[in-house]
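Forum: Protein Structure Q&A
Topic: Joint prediction for protein chains with partners

I've read a bunch of threads here and the consensus seems to be that you should model interacting components together rather than docking separate models afterwards. I'd like to see that in practice. Below is the full input, 342 residues plus whatever partners are listed. Could one of the regulars post the assembled result?
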Amino acid sequence: MKVEIINNKKTFWVLVLIPFQVFSMHIAEGFLPKEWAFFWTLVFIPFLVYGYRKLKRQIEKVPSTKLLFAVVCAFVFVLSSFKIPSVAGSSSHLTGIALGAILFGASTMSVAGLIVLLFQALLLAHGGITTLGANAFSMAVVGAFSAVWVYKLAVKLKVSQWLCVFLAAVVSDFLIYVTTSMQLALAFQSETNSLLENAIKFMSVFAITQVPLALIEGVFTVFVFKLLLNYSKNELTLLNPLLK
Amino acid sequence: MKNKKSFIIISLLVAGLLIALQFVLANVVSKFEGTDDQAVAIISEISPNYKPWAFSFWEPSGAMAETILFAVQTTLGLSVIVFYLINRNSKLKRTKCN
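Posted by a regular:
Agreed with the consensus. Here's the joint model:
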């Protein structure tokens, strides 16, 4: 009898939520318990403050990078606006975070991520204000820092430049979705559902879909990276001496 | 001069194609399930009593409105990128001429 009630409740929520709650690449409005929403916002704020200051310094040092930063944000805008079908009959989004992270430094992407996520939450009802902190952390912090670390590692291994960028973009895109899975798994763990079980469940949805998309993201990122390097080599090497 | 013009035309064409792709993909994607929706299904499965505590105060009505809004996002981003490309391209030309 009890099982039946739960089952009914379950189907009730599935029926109620799926038609109205349009989900996007990230966790939707209200779908993270209050304490977790608060926690991730708190975690994100220091990155945002540090990134904003760093960006301000960079623009003061090389004023012409203002337009370049706009381009990097625009790249995130364009890539995250595409819903792309993938294997296993599901669809997901690209992120475009790696490009800016490599060019401007990982922390500055907190600013770009916040702009894009706010736009999507307010205008498109994708993601949400309450889940902004968690989504920004996965996309703009984990995504950006992993991109920079992979890029630096690949440079040390003396891999050719396009491959460094490609690997950084692929790993970053993939890890963003692993982080989202972990955030959901953490928030919804209980006596009956261990963290590990949850993680496997969420990961099986996100990870498989994301692999081909991560590869597409890699291709786009390399293309635009080469384009920017071609047009703005001087500013970019001033920003990041690693790019020579 | 002619080169500059064709560069502008090509950039605008590519941008237009990408925006058109948004509408093509929207038709294809409707047959695919978003990972986001799958995640909701998992949440309601492992935690059936969870009720979302906040809702978007506004939401595009219908699939077409959503597609158009996503296309707006694509267009906004692309216009910045195209502006940058045309701006830099003409600057590079000028410095080369000098």
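Residues 11 and 82 of chain B are 6 Å apart (CA to CA).
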